[in-house]
Structure formats: C-alpha cells, structure tokens
Amino acid sequence: MDLLALLPALFLGAAASSIQDSKPSTDRMLVHSTVLDAKPEEVWKTFTTSEGIIKLWGVAKAKVDFRVGGSIRTSYDVAANLDGPEAIRHTIVSFEPERSFTMRTQAPEGAPDFIQLACEHAWSVLRLEPVGTERTRLTISGYGYGSGELWDRAYQFFDVGNKSTLEATRKYFASLRPALPTGADALAKLRSLVGGDWIAELALPDGKTQRFRQRFTASPGGHGILGEGWAGSEPGALPFAASLMAVLDSDGELFYLHPSSNGSQSRGTIRLLDAQHLAWSWEMFGPASRKEPQRELRMDLVGPDEYHFRLYGSPQEAAAGGKPMLLLQFRRVQELPAEFRSKGNG
User: Fold this and answer.
1) H-state helical runs in 100-180
2) Which residues pair with 237 in a beta bridge?
3) pLDDT at 38 over 80
4) Domain boundaries in the chain?
5) pLDDT tens across 162-195, in order?
6) 27 forms bridges with which residues in the sheet?
7) CB distance 148 to 41 below 8 Å
8) The CATH number of 183-340 is which of 3.40.50.300, 3.40.50.790, 3.40.50.150, 2.40.128.20?
9) Cα angle at 78 between 75 and 79, to 5 degrees?
C-alpha cells in the first residue's frame, strides 16, 4: 500500500511512462519510483509540512505533526474535522531525516472494505535518494499485502494510484523551476569531442613536461562515448586510463566509469551546467577499494577544438570558482605530434 495514494487514485488519470512499473514479489509488495527535479532536502521539506502535503496530494486540508508517533491528517472536504473519523490519518512509525520514513494509514469513515483491509494490515516506506546533485529518486514501497479477492482489489487500486500520485508529484516539482538539462543533453554535448586526438602539456616542478592525450569515440549504436587516455613525461606516452560514459534509463543521468592503469577508478555523474560547461562528480577509489574524498571536475568547452579541464578538491570549491588543483588546456589535433605518440603502437 502507498501512503500517498489512499484517495488520489480516484481522481488522477493513468500514469505516465516516467513511472517505473511495480511487480509483485513473493512477499507481494508494491514498488514505484520516479526522479524529481528537486534536491532531497527540498522534497523532504514539502512532505513534512501541511502546506507541502496540500500541494502534493491535492487535498483540501492537511495537518502535519511530523515525529515518531505523529501523523499526517488529510481530507478532500474543506469543512472536514481533521481530528474526526472522516479524516485520512497516516501515522509516522519511523523516519531518517531527508532519507526515508515509514507510515501506517487509518482509513476514513465509510471507506470501501478492501481499503479498510489494506489500511489495517499493510504499511508504506518512502525513500529519497540523491540523483546527481540536483535531483532526487522518490521510491514508495508498500508491504504486507495478503491473498484473496479483497487483497487483489486493494493491490490493483494502490498499484494504479501510486503511479498516478508519483506522476503528479513529479509534475509539481518540475513546475517549480526551469527544466534541468538531462543526461541525454550532457551526452549530446560531449559528442562534440569525438574525432581526432586531444592533447595538453603541463610543466612540472623538476623542469620536465607532462604530456596528456585523449581520444573519444562513439560507442556501438551511439548510446554512449568511449574514452582513452595516455600520459608521459618523456617523449612517447603510455596508456593510463579508459572511460565509458552512458545514460542510464532508470535515472536519466549521464554516468561514467573511469578505471586507471594503477588499479584505481573514478565514477560518478556528468551534468550539463550550460552550453559551454559540464560538471563531473569525481568519486575516486584506490587500488585497495579505499574511497578518496569526493572531488569535482569542470570541463569548459572553449571552442570546437579546445576545452579546459579543471579539477577541484571538493564540489564546494568548484561552486565557489576558486583556483583548481589542476588545470589542463586541451586542443584537438588531426595529426598527432611525435612526442604524444604512444610507446609501441603509435
């Protein structure tokens, strides 16, 4: 059962395709999720205030006492007494701030028998998970469903209602801000890097020059981008890293995986900030699976044949626009200079 869908299913239409379908497990549970254009703290605040519940659920009245043992009381009748039996009462069983809460629902007076059955035995868990830095995956799981005709009716009712309510929630948050660039938008921008080789040089304190080379190719079918990297401080370069960038349909975000020759790897999401700038959340794991502090990489697309790579110590430092830990200025070449050629295979 879904705490959000006790009555909205009676009024909302069919769910849109952005809502993932639920499939009964051996425990007969319902699971529905969608991605919202809001940060977890923004979503949490909306769910934990009376004003927010009215906007999300489309009820006429709401009263929220958000604490363990507290409740969210609602009604579609503006004249209803929220402390009376005609109100829908969701009792808060437990919660983790900005992450999850569990609720049991008390059906309003006169509710159909299958709804009363579900409210008596089932319960709901609402979870918030960050998706990148600007979005949230909202998942609502209903547990405790039994078998039999009444349970089948309850299951079907809340299956339809959960999808519709989540779609309404998605549309509400989408209406609060301009549409955010999607992972597909970021991938489209990165496709401009395909073709030729990208090279950069960095002067080292010992007087030597560190050379970097990158090459990007479209993955089979064009649904992602493959990257190769070489580096060396002597003439000639050695392979040091590879990368895969692709959009995961479940989140709509552009993800990347970047294993290196030393056994470490980095992974995270890539966001399009505007027409010329991308941000990479840079989570690095050492050879012994030791997680390093999260960093952020900014890519500035200066022109069709030039981009700048700026690595910051944290997302906060990147947002502040301070001095990066590392700055590399890449340029595209169609003919690779001899000093950048990889040792062994050209």
Assistant:
1) 113-121, 149-174
2) 342
3) yes
4) 8-174, 183-340
5) 898 899 899 999 898 877 788 899 999 999 999 9
6) none
7) no
8) 2.40.128.20
9) 105
